[in-house]
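Researcher: Please predict.
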Amino acid sequence: MDNLFESINNILQSPLLRLAWYLLLFSVAVLWLALVFWTLKDARRRIDDALIIVVAVLTSLVFPFIGTLVYTILRPAEYLDDIRERELEMRAMEQELMSTQLCPNCRTLVRDDYIVCPRCRKQLRSTCVSCERPLERSWRVCPYCGEETDQQVSRPEAPALEETAEPFQREALGRSRA
């Protein structure tokens, strides 16, 4: 029996086992510090408040492995860059929606630069006689060529019924006039 305890003691005192034990402790310490560093990097990408970042990193540092696990559970789901990108996309869509309007005749979405509704052919804007660019109704001078617009703005009448009618409706109109 003494021989067995002596053999176990010799194995435990061997330099090879001691080296393996030190390597294991070193690996665990490196893993712990890597998790603290990862917590810092991830928190900076997800959290805007510096105090919360410090608390997350200190929790990860003071409570090895458990602190990082708690941070991983409680961290925000999105990166700050993703949130900012989504907000920019929403602003761009809002601006696009603001640059579109509804046709007063058929309620189709039309852009600000349309002169005529592409669906019902309703005149949405006037054009300058001189340069033929679209004009706002409130403009007194064409900003593109400088021409007075009070009497020089061409205001075409609404298209005739024959122009907006479907082919079978045109035939019916032709028969009714005859």
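Model: Strands lie at 100-102, 109-111, 126-128, 134-135, 153-154.
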